[in-house]
Amino acid sequence: MSFQIPIGPQHPALKEPISLRMTVDGEVITDADIRLGYNHRGLEKLAEEKTWVQNIYLTERICGICSHSHATCYVQAVEKLMEIMPPRRGLYIRYLVSELERVHSHLLWLGVAGHEAGFDSFFMYTWRDREIVMDLLEMISGNRVHYAMNTIGGVRRDIDEGQKAKILEGVVTLRKRSEYYFGIGANEPSFVARIAGVGMLTKQQAIDLCAVGPVARASGVARDVRKEDPYAVYDELDFNVCTSDSCDVLGRVVVRVMELLQSYNMIEQMVKGLPDGDIVVKAPRKAKPGEALSRYEAPRGENVHYIKSNGTDKPERLKVRAPTLGNYPATMVMLKKGFIADIPLIFAAIDPCICCAERAVTLISARSGEESVVTMSDLRRQALDRSKNTPVKGKSVWPF
Amino acid sequence: MAVLRTFLYLLVYPGILFLFAYSTFSEWFDRKVYARLQNRMGPTHTGRFGLLQPIADFFKLLAKEDIVPEAADKGLFNVLPAISLAVVSTAALLLPLWNFDLAKPGLTSFSGDIIVMLYLLSLPTLILFLAAWSSTNLFSTIGGARVLTMLFGYEVPLFLAVLSPAILANSWRLAEIAAFYQAKPLLLLVNVLGFLVALIAVQAKLERTPFDIPDAETEIVGGTFTEYSGKKLALFRLTFDIELVVASGLLAAVFLGGFPGGVVLGLILFVVKTLFVIFLLSLIRALTSRIRIDQVVAFAWKILAPLAVLQLLATILLKGFLS
Fold first, then answer.
1. Which of A13, A172, A319, B85 is 20 to 30 A off residue A2, Cα-Cα?
2. What is the CATH number of the domain that holds A88?
């Protein structure tokens, strides 16, 4: 007996609305289908109405977890357009916050993975320790979610000696705990039984389907923008790209925990080697006409922002390619031939951030199930076509 | 007078009132242990140390809106929660905690009551399946199928493990089994393996982590209970609480030497021993992750069942050696 089970748009396993339709035969998934568009907010269009500086805070709100990633990626592109270079101290603080954000995001993900596997103790422990890094971020920026650290040409807040000491102290605790979680994630039998060999994505598939971030790295593809195309401070830091050859959810857990350890190293290097000087340079109000593309390794993978400027104080076009979108095709492959019980784990293993990825409107015909992506001008034309053929109602009555 | 006494037994002690109070206390204990193991506080707000929280939850659910799905088999859907509660409460009466005289078998303590007890503990599982099936929800249906699949896994090891001490005691009566081990406490050590097997099987029967597969919220939403709300859900939750007490009482009676010493001392021993079993169950719940349905069946037949058979073999050999 085969039937379709809907996962979403509202489902306890999903933190954000998305619709996965699984055709299952008993407990085995035979086909998977993904439907997006429940969380489209029109941010890219909105960005065209706002100035360069206002857009920093707008892009920060693309996502609640990797808020700094989007803001930094945007700011990098604008700085390229304006041809300004932030001072080194500013850069160090900016990417220090980036790495702290990666730590909080990966710890959050570990907890979610534990919860999806029904291992709530793991979830409670990792989220308890995530508070340490959340407190550090709050101490540095004043905020827990949207740090608002970036500005064009540097950062908005400096850090002092006392804060440095607290960061180093927090990192020591976090490193100890992360090593413990590494032990649990790789050794606890019932947990490993759930994640080993689940959601297989071979190296070739990962390359073919353009998987990004920890998903690609867990399939043995050493793809990391920080290493391949080092931006800002990353060529001065000493770190490794963590990969795993197991190609399954276990590999994704291992890669993320190893990345945590690498991030702790980077944070220590940045705090200890923090250069003196200014944290920001003055930025012009307008950018020259031109285009800029900025790449940034967000916790979930490569984040890409494209900006086109027409010489005014507003962008003409902002295009965001969030890492989750890059991982959807790979997810469809991972889900097939899996068990129902593995759906939340496999889907969670790409660390989906649906609000990041919702960038296009897809129309689904209710009758045929046909899907089509349309542009605004197409929609307008369709509406005009339809109204052209409808007869004019002579005596329409106002309903109230 | 006899009628009044019977009513008192049924309604107050050890009947429904005592069961309600003690099972909600057990739920509180389980939640508190689970929470402390996870570095959380657990219930703290209602009553002293949050002791009244499960009762508050129960009454809150009673007051909630009760929705019956259009497509459901309404008669079955409505009556099943009450039946399951009745079944586990009846099973509780069979615990060798009160009103049993070794010489005089009665209505609640007779030769073969251990089998009746196991049967009454199996019924809620079937009722759960029926409840899931009659609610016609997709997630419920999958949950119901999982309930039955799991039943095939843990039921046989549970029966084998619980019955092997009975074989050594040469009785099918819970009170006599308990009395036998009270006389020779050292023989309890023989059954340690069986105790572990039964503990794991009971964990599966109660659908607690790592066996909370039929209502795994991240996979199939509410699972068996997706369509249940209000009073009916409250009754099902109470059923599980009472089943927790009855199952741990059964394990305590069979593997831990029962509850000797009259009404007061017997009650104290009952509380201590059942809480010990519940503590072990909470420990398993906190330390493991949910496994998959195929893994449960494989685990039950490849590990639990052989261990239970080993226990049975050891018991039979020892019995032959002793006699």
1. A13
2. 1.10.645.10
Nearest to B59 by CA among B19, B13, B20, B9: B20
Angle at B127 between CA B125 and CA B131, to 5 degrees: 120
- Give the separation between CA A146 and CA B8, rounded to whole angstroms: 63
User: What is the dihedral angle through the alpha carbons of B95, B96, B99, B101, rounded to the nearest 10 degrees?
Assistant: 150
Nearest to B135 by CA among B86, B207, B76: B76
Pairwise CB contact (< 8 Å): A117 & B289: yes
Decide if A116 is inside a domain: yes
- State whether A367 and A353 are in the same domain: no
pLDDT digits (tens, 9 = 90+) for A73-132: 999 999 988 889 899 999 999 999 999 999 999 999 888 888 888 888 888 999 999 999
Q: Output helix, strand, coil percentages for chain A, rounded to the nearest 5.
A: 50, 15, 35
Pick from B139, B220, B289: which is nearest to A119 by CB? B289
| ipTM exceeding the 0.90 mark | no
- Domain, as residue range, for A185: 5-30+32-357
Percent of chain B whose pLDDT exceeds 90: 35
Rounded Cα–Cα distance for residues A227 and A297 (Å): 9
Domain assignment present for A399: no
**Mean model confidence pLDDT for chain A:** 83
For residues B58 and B238, the answer to whether their CB atoms sit within 8 Å is yes
Domain match, A176 and A61 both: yes
Tokens of B113: 């009551």
Residues of A in contact with B139 (CB under 8 A): 5
- Cα dihedral sign, A155-A158-A164-A170: negative
Structure tokens at B178: 């308990």
Residue length, chain A?
Answer: 400
How many angstroms from the chain centroid is the CA of residue A347? Answer: 14
Contact between chains at B209 and A344 (C-beta distance less than 8 A): no
Which residues touch B205 (CB under 8 Å, ≥6 apart)? B121, B125, B154, B158, B243, B247
Phi, psi of B18, deg, nearest 5: -60, -45
Distance of alpha carbon A171 from alpha carbon B185, whole angstroms:
53
Q: Is residue A397 part of a domain?
A: no
Cβ partners under 8 Å of residue A286, min gap 6: A52, A311, A312, A313
Both tokens of B224, joined, read 């068996």
Q: Which two tokens stand for residue B87?
A: 């079944």
Rounded mean pLDDT, B11-29:
88
> Which of A27, A116, A121 minimises the CB distance to B287?
A121
Number of structural domains found in chain A: 2
Tell me if A274 sits within 8 A of A281, measured CB to CB. Answer: no
